[in-house]
C-alpha cells in the first residue's frame, strides 16, 4: 500500500498549558502524563467516576504543556469539565484550530507513530498536509485492523474502557496510581471480569443499524456498533462467539484481530 494521508475533521485539538498542566491531567486521565516528554504521543481516556468512558483522547507532549486530540463533538464538554476540575491549578485550557491528520501505509515526515498499534500509522497536528485519502478511507483502515473508535462506537457514556480494548491498545497505565474511574477499571482488569469486548464482524450487504442484536441461536451475543458495507464493529460477549451468529436473520462472522488475546 502506498502512503495515505487523511484530514480527520471529526477530531479537534485542545491545548492545556501552564506549570501544573502535567500533574493536573495526570490525576484525571487513564494515561501517565507526568512522564510525557515533548514530542511523545500517548493514548488514553477521560472516564466518569463510576469508570465509564466519556471520551478517548491522544496526548502529545509540548514544551509548555500537553496537546489533546479529542472527538470534535465533545471538545466543548471536555473543556467545561477540565475547567470544573482545575480549581487552583495553574493551567490554561484553550481550544486550538490545529487540524488533525492521520497517515498510514508508508513513512510520512512530521507524523508521530500512533501509540495504539504500529500498523495504524501516525498522527500529525497543525501545518499543511496534502490529503491523499478521505476520513472514510481511514475508517476502513482502522476497522480492518479491528480498532474501535469510541467516539462512534461508545456514544452513550455506558462503555467501560476495557470493553473498548483500551487496556490492550496502550490506553490505560495500570501502574500510575489514581485517576478518575481508576477503581472500577483496575478491578475489572485484576479480576479478569471482562465479559465483552469490541471487535469486528463481517457480513454481506449494508451494515445493520446501530444497536441491532447479534444472536447466537436464540441467545444475545452482542450488539452492532458503527459499520459499513461488509463489516462493522460490535460489542461481543466473549463466551458466545462460537456457533452460528446472525443479525436480523443475516449470518455474520466474528473477526477478532490478532492482537486480541484468545
Structure write-up:
The chain is an alpha+beta fold. It has two domains: 4-153, Probable tRNA modification gtpase trme, domain 1 (Gyrase A, domain 2, 2-Layer Sandwich), CATH 3.30.1360; 195-254, Elongation Factor Tu (Ef-tu), domain 3 (Beta Barrel), CATH 2.40.30.110. 16% of the residues lie in helices and 33% in strands. The protein is built from five helices and 15 strands. The protein has helices at 21-26, 75-86, 135-144, 150-153, 182-191; strands at residues 4-7, 11-17, 41-47, 53-62, 65-71, 92-96, 100-104, 112-113, 122-125, 196-202, 213-216, 219-228, 231-237, 245-247, 250-254. The strands form three sheets. Strands 10-13-12-11-14-15 form a six-stranded antiparallel barrel. Strands 3-4-5-2-6 form a five-stranded antiparallel β-sheet, covered by helices on one side. The chain starts with a strand and ends in an 8-residue tail after the last strand. The model has no long low-confidence stretch (mean pLDDT 95). Residues 196-261 form the CAF17 C-terminal domain. It holds the Pfam family Beta-barrel_CAF17_C. One of its GO terms (biological process) is iron-sulfur cluster assembly. Residues 14-105 form the GCVT N-terminal domain.
Largest sheet: 6 strands, antiparallel, barrel
The class by helix and strand makeup works out as: alpha+beta
Overall tally of structural domains: 2
Q: Helical residue percent?
A: 10-25%
CATH architecture of the largest domain: 2-Layer Sandwich
Number of strands: 15
Strand neighbour order, sheet with most strands: 10-13-12-11-14-15
Number of helices: 5
The CATH homologous superfamily of the largest domain is named Probable tRNA modification gtpase trme, domain 1
Amino acid at each position: 500500500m502506498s502512503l495515505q494521508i487523511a484530514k480527520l475533521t471529526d477530531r479537534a485539538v485542545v491545548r492545556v498549558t501552564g506549570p501544573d498542566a502535567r500533574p493536573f491531567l495526570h490525576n484525571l486521565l487513564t494515561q501517565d502524563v507526568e512522564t510525557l516528554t515533548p514530542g511523545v504521543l500517548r493514548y488514553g481516556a477521560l472516564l466518569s467516576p463510576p469508570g465509564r468512558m466519556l471520551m478517548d483522547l491522544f496526548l502529545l507532549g509540548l514544551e509548555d504543556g500537553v496537546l489533546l486530540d479529542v472527538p470534535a463533538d465533545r471538545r466543548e464538554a471536555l473543556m467545561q469539565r477540565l475547567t470544573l476540575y482545575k480549581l487552583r491549578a495553574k493551567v490554561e485550557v484553550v481550544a486550538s484550530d490545529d487540524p488533525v491528520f492521520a497517515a498510514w501505509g508508508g513513512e510520512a515526515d512530521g507524523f508521530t507513530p500512533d501509540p495504539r498499534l504500529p500498523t495504524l500509522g501516525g498522527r500529525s497536528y497543525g501545518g499543511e498536509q496534502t490529503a491523499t485519502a478521505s476520513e472514510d478511507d481511514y475508517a476502513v483502515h482502522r476497522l480492518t485492523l479491528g480498532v474501535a473508535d469510541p467516539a462512534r462506537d461508545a456514544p452513550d457514556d455506558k462503555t467501560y474502557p476495557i470493553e473498548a480494548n483500551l487496556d490492550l491498545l496502550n490506553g490505560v497505565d495500570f501502574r500510575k496510581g489514581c485517576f478518575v474511574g481508576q477503581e472500577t477499571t483496575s478491578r475489572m482488569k485484576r479480576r479478569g471480569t471482562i465479559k465483552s469486548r469490541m471487535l469486528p464482524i463481517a457480513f454481506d450487504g449494508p451494515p445493520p443499524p446501530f444497536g441491532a442484536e447479534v444472536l447466537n441461536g436464540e441467545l444475545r451475543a452482542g450488539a452492532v456498533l458503527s459499520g459499513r458495507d461488509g463489516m462493522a464493529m460490535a460489542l461481543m460477549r466473549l463466551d458466545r462467539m462460537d456457533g452460528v451468529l446472525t443479525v436480523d436473520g443475516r449470518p455474520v462472522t466474528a473477526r477478532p484481530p490478532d492482537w486480541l488475546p484468545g
